[in-house]
Specification:
With about 270 residues, the protein is α/β, with parallel strands linked by helices. Helix content is about 35%, strand content about 15%. The protein has helices at about 1-20, 55-65, 75-80, 100-115, 145-155, 175-195, 210-220, 255-265; strands at about 30-35, 35-40, 50, 70, 90-100, 120, 160-165, 200, 225-230, 245-250. Helix 4 links the parallel strand 5 (about 90-100) and strand 6.
């Protein structure tokens, strides 16, 4: 009986250490948070990890403010990268992938309320439409932000934008000419629509971020920064020629303790 109890306790400890990475050493680097949808998932959604409730997101932004982090924009890291203006002592880059309408209705307003900033990677051909790349067996399509919403957020100085291809394909599955077009055209069209430089690119699904055939196309397109979907923190100053910038995926079921672990350990869990 005592052995059985000891095994249960041991199993519980192992599970805790798999769920939370408190035991890891702290990691240095630029913390780049990645969110997708801020809101409430549809009934029977199989993608709930991509949804962060507005009240949870607000708590997380408040945590950043309370603990001395300064949320920064792509233009801030660009100025630092060029040696024009140093980043604040504790920077944090908040990013959102895809460009959902709920980034405008929830995230933008929370950031504005809390005097924080964020950055959205936009799928150009879905602006004002729906996330048609999603398999509807996972959850129904939802609305994407309109061009008017994007411009309002840009004009506020609270949000900046990066490119996320034209159609959100898996770039590893495309021929070289289509890889190049998806990346280059997204930069061109977004710059025309928003009348500003687009210096950042994120790989849909993270596919190709560590593949030279794909990554070379992003660098050739003229993006200063390219972002992966790999979990982790990237040392800053960053070696652009060697690897993309990793990000910290904030899931829908995570709390402020998870956020703390992301920021300090480079991840909150192993499973």
């Amino acid at each position: 009986m005592e052995l059985f109890l000891a095994l249960i306790i041991l199993a519980f400890i192992i599970l805790l250490n798999l769920r939370w990475t408190w035991w890891r050493f702290s990691k240095k680097g630029l913390p780049v948070l990645i969110y997708h949808k801020i809101g409430y998932p549809p009934k029977n959604s199989k993608l709930k990890s991509l949804w962060v409730k507005p009240e949870t997101f607000e708590k997380q932004v408040k945590y950043l403010n309370k603990h001395g982090y300064t949320t920064v924009l792509f233009s801030d890291i660009l100025a630092d990268f060029k040696g024009e203006k140093a980043l604040p002592e504790k920077p944090a880059l908040i990013t959102f992938d895809d460009g959902y309408e709920n980034n405008y209705t929830y995230a933008y307003k929370i950031l504005k309320k809390l005097n924080a900033k964020g950055n959205i990677f936009v799928v150009y051909n879905t602006i004002g439409k729906a996330n048609v790349w999603h398999n509807t067996n996972s959850e129904p399509w939802i609305n994407m932000a309109s061009i008017a919403m994007l411009k309002e957020m840009q004009d506020s100085g609270i949000i900046e934008f990066g490119a996320h291809t034209m159609n959100h394909p898996d770039l590893l599955k495309l021929p070289a000419d289509m890889i190049s077009w998806e990346i280059k055209e997204s930069k061109k069209q977004l710059e025309t629509a928003l009348q500003t430089e687009i210096c950042a690119f994120a790989y849909p699904y993270g596919a190709g971020a560590y593949n030279n055939k794909v990554r070379d196309k992003a660098l050739e397109a003229g993006f200063t920064f390219d972002f992966s979907f790999k979990q982790g923190k990237t040392f800053w100053p960053w070696d652009r020629n060697s690897f993309p910038i990793d990000r910290l995926f904030i899931k829908g079921d995570e709390n402020n303790f998870d956020l703390y672990l992301h920021l300090t350990r480079g991840s909150s869990r192993l499973i």
